[in-house]
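pasting input
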Amino acid sequence: MKILIAKGAGFCFGVKRALDIAFTMAERKQRGVYTFGPLIHNPQVIEKLRQEGIESIQDLQHEGIRALIIRTHGIPEDLMKEASLKGYEIIDATCPFVKKAQHYAKLLSEDGYQVIILGDREHAEVKGLISYAGNDAIVIDGKEELPLLKSRVGIVVQTTQPVEELQRLVGRVIAQSKEMKVHNTICNSTALRLKETEEMARKVDVMVVVGGKNSANTTQLASLCASLPVTTYHIETAEELRKEWFEGIERVGLTAGASTPDWIIKEVEEWINDRGGEQGDGT
Amino acid sequence: MKILIAKGAGFCFGVKRALDIAFTMAERKQRGVYTFGPLIHNPQVIEKLRQEGIESIQDLQHEGIRALIIRTHGIPEDLMKEASLKGYEIIDATCPFVKKAQHYAKLLSEDGYQVIILGDREHAEVKGLISYAGNDAIVIDGKEELPLLKSRVGIVVQTTQPVEELQRLVGRVIAQSKEMKVHNTICNSTALRLKETEEMARKVDVMVVVGGKNSANTTQLASLCASLPVTTYHIETAEELRKEWFEGIERVGLTAGASTPDWIIKEVEEWINDRGGEQGDGT
């Protein structure tokens, strides 16, 4: 059995940066340091952080807050202001690409555009984005019908959306708008990871997608694979692997989301290898 | 035989306005009044204007120019300036919607966007538009491959393009751009005329499309009909009609481009009626 590992699997720039910030804070052993919401969408990493003394809280009324690390997905503007007003030290680990999307949403709204956010309205990043996008902003998930739009429409995109969704949206919007300004805020590493995963999935018999079940970009990798003629498993850790998945299988592909740590990917790889696989060259 | 006539057939706002301007000038019987290029794309109307003493010229070196009527499609910015410098009286009959597209092309270029003009690069309107769009502007006809684009792209559209072409273009552009600003400068009357013609074409056995063979919007009506299961004839005047086209036919649809005068549409209708048709209610 041959295991192919996607080159772009694992931590992206924004996640690496956020973890650097959080673990540096952890080393200082200060009390009262919290992340606002889970720092990234990976339960195993969140558990590690907790062991280092940094817990995640859901509201600003929590007792004993001194410093607040803002999660990679960002938080709504009013909460950011409220945290500042309460005098908490703000350590902003918002992914710089998400920050850029927030900035563009605000600019578009200030320029008088009705802002559309392409993304999942239940996702933390989108909940943050919409707070910058003005009162008439709407979220569109790509599948739903468009409401009646104003004549000047601005678009920003949840950084982990597939570009095909954006392509479809802009085509639909321009048919009913006089002016449309689009910031393609899709993160390159997401697009590359999707592309690489798709290519790999076409070459193997089984795809193993590793990462948080609550991670949008990992779930997207799994959905992509599931839509192709390849057997797909989405797991968070090696513990979920089953020997029978690999019986009689020649080629296994391994990919992981942007919030999946290397040590989990390594564990999964070793687990599969121990059951008789040999590692490929990753091409 | 029943003849259906499209409600939106014939002169659009911009053409009516230009002819009002030109015939008002003609009434003054001044010498040295010319149109720069044919005022509209209809040979029969151009001939009428010529009989009234207003000819079309192709260059500014023509002898005896006193006043210059700018054609509905507009002219390049440098020619407009040159005509002013030569001291000619400029009577601008550029369609206000084309004027708007020129204005947006200039604004986008001034804002640092690489401008794409969606349209036919051989068309007078597009030749005018590109002159406002900056040095790195390109024309895309909707079918051709996109070249490598800059990261900020602005789009304006030849006013007579079908919206489907614009929808396809924006989808292709956003896949390779970080920012895209689109002015949907497609003229509503073009879109409505196409829609109405398509609906009519689906209800009749024969479609007669009346208008200049050099008229982009008329040619588009004819192409649209030809792509549907209906026999289509594109004619400029009633003289081209043939009796055998209507033998055994129950329903005939009649539509016309934005530059086709009512008297030509009327002649065509009467010709068909004389061969045994009765007029429908246009629904």
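fyi Chain A touches chain B at residues 163, 166-168, 170-172, 174-175, 177-184 (CB under 8 Å).
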